[in-house]
Amino acid sequence: MADLTLDIGGRSYPVTCRDGEQEHIQSLAAMIDDQLRKASAGGPAMTEVRGLLFASLFLADALKEKEAQLAQATSENPMQVSAKASDAPTPAVPAGAIRALESLAERVEALAEALEKPTAKA
Question: Which residue numbers in the chain have pLDDT < 70?
Fold first, then answer.
């Protein structure tokens, strides 16, 4: 486990994370800090808790928007999202390319079968 300090909204927060995740956690903290600055721009009377609440709402809104975009892209082109456990997006594969690969696979299989047959001696 690794210990690190996150600076958000002018305050330091000591946290523990898995080894190797420090840079990722720091980048998340930077996103939160950026959103907190945007929330605080609304007025100087914002408390720390209220600022963090609005920063969280901004980030949640951005996440919802990305989820909606992904869902729309997936419904328009089901080949765009992989069926892996991670559900990481993958580039869309045109149907023509899939047919060409299937045809090529059939030709390779036919060639392999032909090569496996014993040749007739003349």
Answer: 78-105, 107-108, 110-122
Helix (H, G, I), strand (E, B) or coil at 56: helix
Residues 6+ apart with CB under 8 A from 73: 80, 81
On whether the CB atoms of residues 18 and 2 are closer than 8 A, the answer is: yes
H or E element, residue 4 = strand 2-8
Q: What ranges make up the beta strands (E) of 26-95?
A: none
| Rounded Cα–Cα distance for residues 12 and 25 (Å) | 14
Provide the whole-model pTM.
Answer: 0.57
How many residues in the chain? 122
